[in-house]
Design a protein that fits this description.
Distance between the termini: 30 Å
Helix content: 25-40%
Strand content: 15-25%
Number of helices: 10
Order of helices and strands: EHEHEHEEEHEEHEEHEHHHH
Largest sheet: 6 strands, mixed
Radius of gyration: 20 Å
Structural class: alpha/beta
Strand order of the largest sheet: 8-7-6-9-5-10
Length: 328
């Protein structure tokens, strides 16, 4: 039987590297791993032209499309990217913002209002700190240059908040420095952070705050999933299982290598302590795949997306994934 050819696009993450090198090969799949380190480019090319057979995909964009019942791709419960986001709220000290509640009534920059990072930050601010999101005015655009953040093909929100596109010749980072916006909530840190003493994080002790957040909620925010084009999956449903098993094997290899104590796998001077912290906080695996171990995160994402008017109503998280994949 001829292997199914799959052109897969993603960043070259440690958890995916064994698939790129061929050390792990999905059963019955001829995988061509296309490395694209800018996630926005992948999303735009997949959502706009279905350019890949499978790829890393924005969680919010995928869930929004799935909620309509007409999504051109289907996910497997492999988390391509996840990040805590408390450390990505950056303010100008001259704005007088000292606490999350002080963000109310402010003019805040965001790369793309609908992006997963922004959704998670808003949900956390609302649920953990009681921030009234309806009072915030949003300025949308690129963080490190003028203009828009990518060329997204996204579905409209069901209720439009106060959003203006940045039509100046300045980046969001420069607008923050010039006090034309009060803060930035983003997937990337603005270049002015660390260069301008007036630009600081809202949570300077973000690592401590994020660890506490996880202990309280069991939520590790999910940014990107892995999706397969629906026509590929419909013609070859076994591809979903083969890819899920291969991604799981690749992740386990990455975890084992990270734990090797004879040399630092990554340029992180305190990696041994980081590994100890992973054991203390996450029970050894900070990056679980499958549905059940990610249920609190996925259910929170659905809830926040309803509250923020991406989707009309909640639906079972099982509906997000190819049937029978990663159920345990």
């Amino acid at each position: 039987m001829v292997d199914v050819k799959i052109n897969f696009a993603s960043g070259l993450y440690d958890r995916f590297l064994p698939l790129y090198t061929g050390e792990v090969m999905p059963s019955g799949v001829d995988l061509n791993f296309t490395v694209i380190d800018d996630p926005r480019e992948i999303f735009d090319r997949m959502a706009g032209d279905l350019e890949f057979d499978a790829c890393e995909m924005s969680g919010t964009e995928y869930i929004t499309r799935t909620s309509t019942g007409n999504c051109p791709f289907i996910a497997i419960p492999v988390i391509a990217s996840r990040m805590f986001r408390h450390g990505f709220i950056v303010i100008n000290k001259n704005s007088g913002i000292k606490t999350p509640k002080d963000l109310e009534g402010r003019r805040l920059g965001v790369q793309l209002y609908t992006m997963s990072a922004a959704m998670w930050i808003r949900g956390m601010l609302q649920h953990d700190y009681g921030v009234d999101l309806s009072t915030i005015r949003w300025v949308q655009g690129a963080i490190d240059g003028p203009g828009a953040h990518g060329v997204p093909t996204i579905l409209p929100l069901l209720k439009q908040p106060s959003i203006e596109n940045n039509d100046t010749e300045k980046s969001l980072s420069k607008l923050l420095e010039d006090e034309e916006i009060d803060g930035i909530l983003s997937a990337m840190l603005p270049p002015c952070l660390g260069k301008n003493p007036d630009i600081v994080r809202l949570f300077p002790n973000f690592r401590e705050v994020e660890a506490d957040y996880y202990r309280r909620t069991n939520i590790f925010p999910m940014m990107h999933l892995v999706v397969i084009r629906r026509e590929i999956y419909d013609a070859n449903p076994s591809v979903a299982t083969a890819l899920y098993d291969a991604f799981s094997a690749a992740k386990n290899i990455a975890l084992d290598r990270m734990r090797f104590s004879g040399a630092l796998r990554y340029m992180l001077p305190f990696l041994p302590d980081d590994v100890d912290e992973i054991d203390r906080i996450f029970g050894g695996d900070p990056w679980p795949y499958g549905i059940e171990l990610n249920r609190p995160t996925l259910e929170a994402e659905i809830q926040y997306m309803v509250e923020q008017h991406y989707i009309a109503k909640p639906f079972p998280i099982e509906n997000l994934f190819a049937p029978g994949i990663g159920q345990k």
